[in-house]
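[step 3/7] fold_predict: job queued, chain A
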Amino acid sequence: MKQNFNKPHNPFLLSGYISPEYFCDREEETKKLVSALRNGRNITLISPRRMGKTGLIRHAFHIMEREGQEHCYLVDLYQTDSLTGLVAKLAKTVLGTLDTGSSRFLKTVGAFFKSLRPVLTVDPQTGEPGVSFDIQPNYAERSLEEILTYMENSGRQCIVAFDEFQRVAEYEDSQVEAMLRSHIQHLNNVHFIFSGSQRHVLENMFTSASRPFYQSTQLMNLGSIGAEAYCKFADSKLRKHKQQLDPQAFFHTYDSLMGHTWYIQALLNRLYENGTTVLDNSIIEKTLHEIASENEATFQTLLRLITPAQRKLLKAVAKEGEATEINSKNFLSRNHLGAASTIHAAAKSLVEKELLIETKGKFSVYDRFLAIYLSSGAE
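[step 4/7] structure written:
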């Protein structure tokens, strides 16, 4: 899995992975993930969107490949809608790492893979050679078996991370889960990470006795990076930029953003950019509200697409930061929300739309910048 090690202008990355230098903490999570995979246990990695699942996977892969023991592949299933799409992504990721610029590649694939049709491509911008695969729906399962067999017999341990794995549960063909499980369970040299953000879907896939993947993996829930560790990381980068971060202001902001990785990272990216010498609470609050204001048009469009009851509930939760017992008389009357049955239905819909997130009976607004926008009195 190749990485780009170019030094970034801004050390607070908002996407991708460069190196451990720009990766904050996650030491225990990384050890746990690497250890499980090396000891033959598949992992189901669950966390809210933008909490850092993909970054953690890339970081673990960087460590494993640096030590030279495994081949690691990250396969994003977000835009797939069928087994054919999954296999095409897997083929491009796994086989696309071969020497695609040589005729030997075509011979190798042609000799081993009977159901795949490799097509050499050239990136029009970079001129770099690449490869795509024509997967025929009728041969998708056979193609999957061939790719897995190729990795199993490669002479190296292989790790495949299926990101946004909950998409499989939405495929029209309901037999895909069972088919995947039947091919995966017999592999000794290929191990898997099944990563996703829709907790209820993934937990049902891996903990329900009626589902094919029942108790086949180790469950791993990814929470927030610790406030102390995050503050230390941010301070070290900002000091090199001749900026001073007020720790108490950072901790206050960390709490208001619910420790949600991407939103904290986005804020730090802006603070680094503006170059202000002393980063106190007033500067941080100003920057947060500037970001929220920039997204006003998007937020307004989103609010128009949900029902009045859902809008009122979303604003009430944003105002409270973290809401519990949202069906209680106290919460309903305090926020002028009306009937409990209506709010119960609104909450269910907002969670499904990933506008609200529920953790152990506590509700918060998924998008932390939207929460700031709503709590500021936006209509």
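[step 5/7] annotate
The chain has a mean pLDDT of 91.
DSSP finds 16 helices and twelve strands in the chain.
exit 0
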